[in-house]
Amino acid sequence: MVKIGIVTGSTRKARVNMQVAEWVKDFAEKMDLEAEFEIVDIKDYDFPMFNEDLPPAMANKQYSTDAINAWSKKIDELDGYIFITPEYNKSVTASLKNAIDYIGPEWGNKSASIVGYGSTLAVAATLSLRQILGNLNVATVAPFGAFSLFTDFENMSTFKPAEIHNATIENVVTTTVNWAKGLKTIR
């Protein structure tokens, strides 16, 4: 059994990110996979802006606040991730990048997939996140989920994905779980 964290990518009060995360979790739990899924909401950790004296890889998991230590423990216990990211200015949100940057070794040798949404299907945010995760030794899998603010949300505020996405999301979840199982053998 592997543990997959569905990591939210927004902390805004009016975010739709949680709706997408909950939908992906419900979808994944209906699949017959040997995996546990949980939502890991970055908003729960209330990080200050990253301004540490040492980079995470050099900090030896001795972080400056209880919130960062809790974040470290949560990410460390997971075998893989499904990131739910909106696209802001052709990239990921500052809050998601900040959360990723706070820790280092906990991410490595695990699988991750990306489910994005935005006016242009979050393609640029997905590519940006793949590069960020690659630097942390995270194996990002393909395909990625891509939802449109114009067609998969009512009034850009209520998530109502078209059924055409189901096959892609099934592939996203299955591939993430399979790679998580494989990568668990090298950790």
UniProtKB/TrEMBL annotation:
UniProt keywords, alphabetically: Flavoprotein, FMN
GO cellular component: cytosol
Pfam families the record matches: FMN_red (PF03358)
Recorded GO MF terms: FMN binding; oxidoreductase activity
InterPro entries: Flavoprotein-like_sf, FMN_Rdtase-like_dom, NAD(P)H-dep_reductase
Family of this protein: Belongs to the azoreductase type 2 family.
Quaternary state and interactors: Homotetramer.
Protein name, entry field: FMN-dependent NADPH-azoreductase
UniProt lineage: Bacteria, Bacillati, Bacillota, Bacilli, Bacillales
